[in-house]
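Worked example

This section walks through a single chain of length 193. The input is the sequence exactly as stored; nothing has been trimmed or padded.
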Amino acid sequence: MKSIASLLLLMVLAVPVVAQQAKSGEHSSAYASAEQKFAQVERDANGRKTQTTTFTADELSAYVNEGGVTLPTGVENVKFSGKSGSVTAVTRVDFDKITAGKSSMNPLMMLFSGLHDVTVNADAKGSGGRGTVNVQSVEIDGVTVPRVALEYFVSKYLQPKYGNNVGLNSNFAMPSHVDTAVVGNNTLTITQR
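Given that input, the structure is written out below as tokens.
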């Protein structure tokens, strides 16, 4: 369920699925708040009562960057923001680490080399226990990447590593009895049933 495009967005809706033990060391208050909320979500997963939890973009960014999840090799410093129904993730990506051991003669793949700032914009929502993320655009250092190049990159480098569930349009079961997920102004509100 991880791709350079949809991984960053899927984490917003599915981060409890990939939650890992936090790395030792000091964490920010935003991380601590997110960790506490995720623990509450896990505790309430089997309670069968309606529970609503709201995460801020700062909490999710801190949780992802401070060891709450394991990022793919080559992806670092993720910053989330959101507005009604859409998510933006800005990150630093070392494409050479992602594509290590594989090469392509396709000239479009020259876009995916070296260390770059990547911005991913997507529509994201969850209802009926299913999350949906549809990537609208990806920019590398401010330049919009053609959709055909993104599709090729996903099929050549990411699907072999992470499976065919990876794509620019993803639909997946949400964890922990999460029924709905709503992206608001720099917030993600989930409801468990």
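What to look for: Helices lie at 6-18, 29-44, 57-65, 95-98, 147-162.
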